[in-house]
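Checklist before submission:
- one chain only
- standard amino acids only
- sequence pasted in full

Submission:
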Amino acid sequence: MQGPNPSIKHPMPMHKRVGFLKPLVDAENIEIGDFTYYDDPEGPDLFQQKCVLHHYPFIGDKLVIGKFCAIAEGARFIMNGANHAMSGFSTYPFNIFGHGWEDGFDVATWQQEVRGDTIIGNDVWIGMEAVILPGVHIGDGAIIAAKSVVSRHVPPYAIVAGNPSTVVKRRFDDKTIEKLLAIAWWNWPAEKIGRNLNAIRGSDISLLEAAA
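Returned file contents:
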């Protein structure tokens, strides 16, 4: 069982609101893994414009999203271009309006607010209208509850919720999580994934270990 072609933009012809993002996004500063999809009643084609905000190539930060992620309607990834310099008395970006206000602006005061790449692991579920702030890393298998504001790193297989988001629970015990990360089924060939769907969808780690 090979499963759907990850290069197809709309893998469900009768359900156009769902789309695989890898073939839909062509930005040089965004990387998206196979089978990751976005669900939006207006269609997934505008994911880059609607969901990835303040992302400017000259800054150099990347949005990296792994394989097999599910991203719900209205999720937002706020990138480093949204940051303001905070070392002075005012955070107002006078310099961007020019006409002399750019004189004397120290770029380093803004650069020190850049928090690096935003990295989403594999098999991550991001709920409706969740907001991911710049530089956050979300581990494999995590779940981000709807309307959460994620301002800090999320451990693998954690469930987070709230504003600011906090860890509500871990999906599995530490030993199981360690085994899941070692198995990394999302890196298997599609045919192998298809043959072992019951183990992947199940909750018996021994079956997944046997498949590995």
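Reviewer check: The mean pLDDT is 94.
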